[in-house]
Design goal:
The complex is a heterodimer of chains A (114) and B (114). Chain A is mainly β and 114 residues long. In chain A, 0% of the residues lie in helices and 55% in strands. Chain A is globular and about 40 Å long. The chains are: A mainly beta (114), B mainly beta (114).
């Protein structure tokens, strides 16, 4: 089955810096890659996603890039703010055959220091 | 509106109790999911309902029994749980089945089994 590796496991940045989280996946047939942000005591919140027919997608301060050849995708957060502090999960899905099963990475704890 | 609601927010139950978790969405989504999340780990898929029919059971023990009474509601019936079942139980829904639809998560029910 699909396997998703996520790095780093923890990331500490100063407010205003950029943060980058990287994920690799194993199944070349995966075609949907969402990113979730989970704050303490809350459920995961979908913040951005990308499909395999697109190489990059941007939404204000966050962007996701996908390299299908290398089977990796990354989350980029610019101008980080303390409220960006949370756990971030990447995921991959084998659309069309698996009824929406998401395989998650192990998560990255992002801390943004004021 | 991308809201999924879950009740109760917290639940403490003994190993001989029977309880139920409830999930509701009014987005017209036709796929609904139950996940289990242990501390500092990613969500693990338990069940998927597609058009109110159970389509995936990830080999979950029979002490967890899902039910989808209608397209807006999803229940998880709990009976004879073990202390290791203590976790955050998350419900999610998506418009599309087949792995290509965005999944929106509820806030979760924090379950403690004593």
């Amino acid at each position: 089955g699909e396997n998703v590796e996520q790095h780093p496991s923890t990331l500490s940045v100063q407010e205003g810096d950029s943060a980058v989280i990287k994920c690799t996946y194993s199944d070349s047939a995966s075609n949907y890659f969402p990113w979730y942000k989970q704050e303490l005591g809350k459920g995961p919140q979908l913040i951005i996603d990308i499909r395999s027919n697109v190489g990059e997608k941007k939404d204000q301060r966050i962007a996701v890039t996908l390299n299908k050849t290398a089977k990796h995708f990354s989350l980029h957060i610019t101008e980080t703010q303390p409220e960006d502090s949370a756990v971030y999960f990447c995921a991959a899905s084998l659309g069309g055959t698996s009824y929406g099963k998401l395989t998650f990475g192990q998560g990255t704890i992002l801390t943004v220091h004021p | 509106d991308t809201e999924v609601t879950q009740t109760p927010k917290h639940l403490v139950m003994g190993m001989t109790n029977k309880k139920s978790l409830k999930c509701e969405q009014h987005m017209g989504h036709r796929a609904m999911y139950w996940y289990k999340q242990k501390a500092k780990k990613p969500p693990e898929l338990m069940f998927v309902y597609s058009y109110e029919k159970l389509s995936i059971n990830e080999s979950v023990p029979s002490r967890f029994s899902p039910e989808c009474p209608n397209s807006s509601l999803l229940n998880l019936h709990l009976h004879a749980l073990q202390p290791e079942d203590s976790a955050l139980y998350l419900c999610a829904s998506s418009h599309k089945t087949g792995g290509l639809g965005e999944q929106y998560f509820g806030p979760g029910t924090r379950l403690t089994v004593t």
